[in-house]
Amino acid sequence: MNRRALALGALAVSGALALTACGSDDTGGNSGSDSSSAAANSNIKCDDAKGQLQASGSSAQKNAIDAWVKQYVAACNGVQINYNPTGSGAGITAFTQGQTAFAGSDSALKPDEIEASKKVCKDGQAIDLPMVGGPIAVGFNVTGVDSLVLDAPTMAKIFDSKITNWNDEAIKKLNPDAKLPDLKIQAFHRSDESGTTDNFTKYLKAAAPDDWKYEGGKSWEAKGGQSAQGSSGLAGQVKQTPGAISYFELSYAKDGIKTVDVKTAAAEPVKATVENATAAIGAAKVVGTGKDLALELDYTPDAAGAYPLVLVTYEIACDKGNKADTLPATKSFLNYMASEDGQGLLADAGYAPMPTEIITKVRETISGLS
Does Zinc show up as a keyword for this record (predicted)? Predict the structure, then answer.
């Protein structure tokens, strides 16, 4: 995987207004100076793109989409792009029902979703295009604690309501110098189907199998805790709730939200940074078949500086059978997202660009969409 509490319905906005109409949902990154914006715009190929492009899905990538839309519509002013961050599950459903030109998902398509896509992808099917990477930050709000180290077993117990107070011995052991208060832990999880949840629970299952017994997936399965919708909803709860802890894409960790350093098999705990996430994503393997570029992530890296809690957001489109009226705009916008300029915006927005080997395959695949 917007750093503020805002109703998701208000986030479906058009064209150049996609950034300015978001109220407190300000973008995590921008294009920089006007001169750099002009330079980036000059490299955007609009081709025959025109009209409105409807898309929805992953809220984790919303801040990246905002930055891309701002640049793209400035160059291709005949196109309006409406991206609604409804969550990965809702985004895929909308796509397979023919409501959107593409979807964003923080986990790769499942076999039943691919099968469902064949109804809208004439003579083709939906494919995964990895476009945005980044760390899943674990944000916390504990008065007097500025730095916090947690490992996978401890996080698993916290989010499974097995550790319920901040001065628990397991947390003390990992943070011997911290002044941990006698304060109830308020663990928040996503209420909607979410690829961020899918990746977060995959990490817990892989790194703490004895303490996380759930199957995983886009829906939260553990008992207890509290919920909020979207990454912005979780970040808002952490910011305003004493004792809170939750998970969301790093670009939402702003306005004073502190994030956990994760203890791995490496000698030192690893901070949630774009660079450390890139180190982990670089070890991902393409496991999709044909034109599908689904990745297999390593949630238990032991290399120094490799942050284990990462996600990759995929853009979901038809390999064949895209709607004729939106295909030019879809290809043009996706091409810009995957371009050197587009990927170059990600770090400033709190995301990790795709490794060269992967993004090169994405560009080749986009050029062949029909």
Answer: no
